[in-house]
């Protein structure tokens, strides 16, 4: 059987797109590897009607909606997409489809600091809009890293949730203006290198510096490097922007006819609700694309 659309990725973007297409009575299947980026998080926030849900609950609700409208969901890893489209899975399954939506998200490359990976999603965070309210008024650390602009901005931004914020530059050389701006926000700055995140009884207790000094903190914010999971897109010929991210039009259409993206795979700042909206937008464009194929085929058959 040839599907109308194969959706690669079962997060909010992919499930939103699949639900819309299934409701449009398209033959749609979601191929999901089951490795969501937000799995370490305790709760989802800023998602209308779902605030406070667990990531698993949100995903389960989305899957149920796809299945309710006769869409399909398949557990598996897509290894490559070929023009045509043939979608190859790791178990040698091959799906054929008239269009494809890639919604594989991104991965967070975390600072190489002991304790960060272990506490990721609980005591170590990166998005104040996602978790700031839950850690309000606590002593917060912001640790600098390779994502320089992000962490400097983060240090100033997080001051909205707590009066006790310390920015650990951790190798970042601040300009006079940057220091002035942080001082104006009453953010303390520590220039000594960070040795580790101190954890006691399973919870963040502080930041240990290279000289052994421990600055008590209960929450740490870091700035990961955002790396899109877009290895399926380059081999098939998708164009890229100067920053290395895949180029798309406003609906998520790539330079390959019939191939769309949605969510963090092509939009790093996208929150969950933005990703879901992008999936819906892409799905409408996909349905219109399929409609044109249907009409053209019907006319040629006259």
Automatic annotation (TrEMBL):
Alphabetical list of PANTHER family matching this protein: THIOREDOXIN REDUCTASE 1-RELATED-RELATED
Keyword terms, alphabetized: Flavoprotein, Oxidoreductase
InterPro entries, per database record: FAD/NAD-bd_sf, FAD/NAD-binding_dom, Ferredoxin-NADP_redctase_2
This protein's name: NAD(P)/FAD-dependent oxidoreductase
Domain FAD/NAD(P)-binding: 3-279
Species classification: Bacteria, Bacillati, Actinomycetota, Actinomycetes, Mycobacteriales
Catalytic activity: [thioredoxin]-dithiol + NADP(+) = [thioredoxin]-disulfide + NADPH + H(+)
Recorded superkingdom: Bacteria
Organism annotation: Rhodococcoides yunnanense
